[in-house]
TrEMBL record:
PANTHER family: ALL TRANS-POLYPRENYL-DIPHOSPHATE SYNTHASE PDSS1 (PTHR12001:SF69), GERANYLGERANYL PYROPHOSPHATE SYNTHASE (PTHR12001). One of its GO terms (biological process) is isoprenoid biosynthetic process. CDD domains: Trans_IPPS_HT. This is Geranylgeranyl pyrophosphate synthase. It holds the Pfam family polyprenyl_synt. SUPFAM superfamilies: Terpenoid synthases. Keywords: Magnesium, Metal-binding, Transferase.
Length: 339
């Protein structure tokens, strides 16, 4: 488990380029994140030990905890991590974890966060039902936050599912593949992070303008993280990124660098390789080599920089201070992690 995969603890600093943030903010967020972790581990509270084991499988695998971190940091534009903010932070992370269980079934994944995926460890049925179990717990947490919060998470569920279905089906005839991709990641990835920002503002007593700014920033930075992940999957060797490159190629997912490369380069061999999932290691390496030499990566990086600029602009209504500074660090990290 890498440093970025380990949940923060008081005094340990924060992942995602946030260790350089204001020390008082880092300590406060780290303490609040410990409370979030307690809630996440509290999902293991059924009468069936097997259900608890499956539900905690990804919780215990760690991860960057991006969504709760963003929620907790954002809350510091106002009153900070109130009990309701902490509950909301745990709820959005549970929703995220639930989607990972379902994603692994759809992608036929065998590994997740350095451990066997649930569908590989048990089977697809267990993975799907465990994801549903986590959705149920997330809904229970949000129900305690009031009807507005429940309505918001229901709308977010709808966006998540719509984005996944649109990605599965692909762009319609005549639809711009780039616009389709950007719209899909806004729904699949950006929507939940946007809700995290919105909850932070709502439950930390931020103004309506500040809450809307956090919501807008979350939507943009969430999509930016997805674009940066897509770039890293192609551009960064495993030794640098800590991830196995070419995962999207093996799953047959066309990401932004691939879409641009197909549209601009017109390489017949690359078109052939990207026609479907690639199972042969040599062909994955060949596709990576062609993509790294293509204009697709350059164009994807340009799009990422545009998203980072938009995210920075979205922060304008927030008051100057440690929280806004930390979010600016996060914006820079999105770019720097791809270099």
């Amino acid at each position: 488990m890498t440093a970025e995969q380990t949940p923060a603890v008081p005094g340990s600093g924060l992942p995602l380029g946030l260790s350089a943030a204001d020390p008082d903010l880092v300590r406060a967020v780290s303490l609040a994140l410990s409370d979030v972790e307690k809630i996440l581990h509290g999902v293991a509270d059924s009468e069936v030990s097997f259900i608890d084991e499956a539900a905690l499988h990804l919780v215990n695998a760690g991860g960057k905890r991006f969504r709760p971190l963003f929620t907790l940091i954002s809350s510091h534009v106002a009153d900070g991590p109130t009990p309701d903010v902490i509950t909301a932070a745990a709820a959005v992370e549970l929703v995220h974890l639930a989607t990972l269980y379902h994603d692994d079934v759809m992608d036929e994944a065998t590994m997740r966060r350095g451990a066997d995926s649930v569908n590989a460890k048990w089977d697809n049925t267990i993975a799907i039902l465990t994801g549903d179990f986590l959705f149920a717990h997330a809904s229970g947490l949000v129900a305690d936050l009031g009807t507005d919060a429940a309505r918001i998470i229901a709308e977010t569920f709808s966006e998540l599912v719509t984005g996944q279905m649109r990605e599965t089906i692909g762009p319609a005839a005549g639809e711009d593949p780039v616009e389709h991709y950007l719209s899909v990641i806004g729904q699949k990835t950006g929507s939940l992070i946007a809700t995290a920002g919105r909850y932070a503002g709502m439950f930390a007593n931020a103004t309506d303008e500040q809450t809307e700014a956090l919501h807008r920033y979350g939507k943009i930075i969430g999509a930016a993280f997805q674009i940066s992940d897509d770039i890293i999957d192609i551009a960064s060797p495993a030794a640098e990124s800590g991830k196995t490159p070419g995962t999207d190629l093996r799953e047959g997912v066309k990401t932004l660098p691939m879409i641009h490369a197909l549209a601009v380069d017109g390489n017949a061999r690359l078109t052939e390789l990207l026609a479907g999932p690639i199972s042969d290691d040599a062909e994955v390496d060949e596709a990576l080599e062609l993509l790294r030499a293509s204009q697709g990566l350059q164009r994807a990086r340009q799009t990422l920089e545009q998203y980072a600029e938009r995210a920075q602009t979205a922060l304008a209504p927030l008051p100057a201070g440690a929280a806004r500074d930390a979010l600016e660090l996060l914006t820079r990290y999105v770019i720097e992690r791809t270099r």
